[in-house]
Structure formats: structure tokens, C-alpha cells
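Researcher: Please predict.
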Amino acid sequence: MKIGIVCYPTFGGSGVVATELGMALAEKGHEVHFITYKQPVRLDFISNKIHFHEVFVEEYPLFHFQPYELALSTKIVEEVKKHSIEILHVHYAIPHAYAAYMAKQMLLEKGIHIKVVTTLHGTDITLVGSHPNYKAAVEFSINNSDVVTTVSESLKQDTLRLFSIRKPIHVIYNFIDFTKYPDIDSPECQRNAIAKENERIIIHISNLRPVKRAEDVIAIFYKINKKIPSKLLIVGEGPDREKIGHLVRKLDIRDSVLFLGNSTEVNKLLCYSDLFLLPSETESFGLVALEAMAAKTPVISTNSGGLPEVNLQGKTGFLSDVGDTKDMAENAVRILKDLNTLKKFKQNAFEQAKRFSINQILPAYLNVYKEVLENCC
């Protein structure tokens, strides 16, 4: 098959999933074309089956905001015609599903039928997509996709609640490529470079937006650190970076907190982590929690969105109400204070992550592609 993938090329979950999916498809022999405004950060697979097509947006004084959707839809048309792409798989409703619909209509005028698969990832539905300024366009784009998928049952229900959807929605979970996660005993896993032997390593990875509640991460760690010697790794950049930096200084825990910025090697950081903190306001799935679990790292998270579908209460970690940093810290201590308990949670997390192996999930996407092509024209 010849598949076009349209996604955000950033560190966010939707871009990571789209990129990993494209690379896995290429390994299976399919021809994959990434169409976006810069090379995806996780795109590190060199193959004659993978192609990247950059979308250029010209700057004109007439436009206060440059029309990316226009440039994207035009680029999609160009690449579909040039490479005979059969399926467009767009990740994120805004602006990708909308641009794909416009491209599809332009191609129809040329007698070319392209199928559009839209995967909804979260904030494109629950925050941005449901805004009155965008809701009608998002709803229209979803209903005019050939197939719609969501990354969790929770997000499916949110989509049905917020929009009038006229077609079935398929739940296909996010996934993990286990081959990219070094074992804790691997030479790549240099734990002693971060912490002393008696210290636990706690980690948080996000884009540090308000929805991730990074201040809660600091509050939870502060409580843990009072009882258990530990280090906190903050991976990522975003609008709350300065705010949490100030909080770290205020609490006088600068020697225990490491800000590592953005990283394309989170798998190597996770391999020596003992606990992952994810106190988000909402998570449609919680891909980063799954990445942690694949690296044998138990998770302390909120019980919002799709997180209970990934993080199993009392088995792979614990779930708490949003904002309940006291409960999260107490649960963290329960896991960390005893080595045997920690080992048990680590193994449970790893076993649960296996359910989301790319080898388990990829066939579901391939079935969607095959079905949509069989119903063509």
C-alpha cells in the first residue's frame, strides 16, 4: 500500500504515534509518505520506503496568520498525484482532517479517489475541537472521513458526547515498539550518572502546558523527597517551565531536580527511572505513561480520561483525583519505600505494557486500510 501520513512533527503524543506507525508500516514493506511542515522528531528510520514532503507556507503581509491548511491541502494533492498515494492517514482533527477533506475534493475533480482515515488523539477534540470557533468544521471533517479512530474508549465517548457523529468510531490504542527500550542492565542505562545508589529516580515527561499540571509534579516530589532520598528528572519544555523552576527554588530542592529539556531519547532516560509522575488534568490515553511502563517504570497518575485504561490501580501504579497531590505522594512512597514492592510494580507495569505492543496494534490499522480500500469508489 501507498500511505500518506499527515501529523504534527513535534514531541507530542500524536506526532510520536504517527511517526512510529509510519516507520513500522515501512518495515512491513509499505510505502509511507510523511506530509508536514518539518521532519518529525522521531523519524530516524532510513529506508527507501519512507519519504518526507515538507509543507512550505509563504509569508504574505496580507495574512495576520499564515494559512497552513491551504498550503497543506495543496501539498497533499501534489504528492498524491505524484506518488499515487492510496490512503491518507491524518492524525489530529485540526487542521489535518479539514485539510484532507479539501484535498480529497480537489482530487475528485481530477478523477482521483483518495481515502481518508482520521485518528483523533485528545485535545483536538476535548479542548480545541469543541470550541465554538472550530466545532462545526471539526464535526464536518470527522463525518466526511472514510474511517475514524480514537486512541482510547474514553476519547471515543468524549467525541460522541461533544459532536454529532454519523459514523462508527473504532478504538485503536496507542502502542509501543519494545525494541527501542534498553534493559535496566544494559550499558546504555547509566543510573549512577544521575543518582546515588540509595536514591530513587522519579521522572516526568511532558510539554509543560497547564493541562499537565507540572506544579503538582513538584509538589508530589517535594513530599516524596522528605521521606525517601530521590532525584526528579523533568523532561520537556513549555509555558510552565519558568513557573516550576521558581517553585523548585522556593522549596529549596534545586540539588534534587534536574531539568533536561526536550529529548529524543526518553527510552534511555526511562530505563533507570523508578517512578513516573503524570498528574494531568486530562489525558486521552497517556502515551508517555505507556512508554514508562514499557521501561518497567510504574506510574502515579490521575484517574482522568483514558489513563485508567492504561495504568491499573494498585498493580502498575496508582490513580488519584486531579489535584490530590497528598494521595499521589503517599501512593508513590508505598511503591518506593520497599525494594521488593518496587520490583513487583516494575514487572507488573512491563507486563501491562505488552498488551500495547506495536505487534498487537499494527494489524488493527492494516485491517482498517484494507477495508477502506476494498470499499473504494
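Model: The chain has a mean pLDDT of 90.
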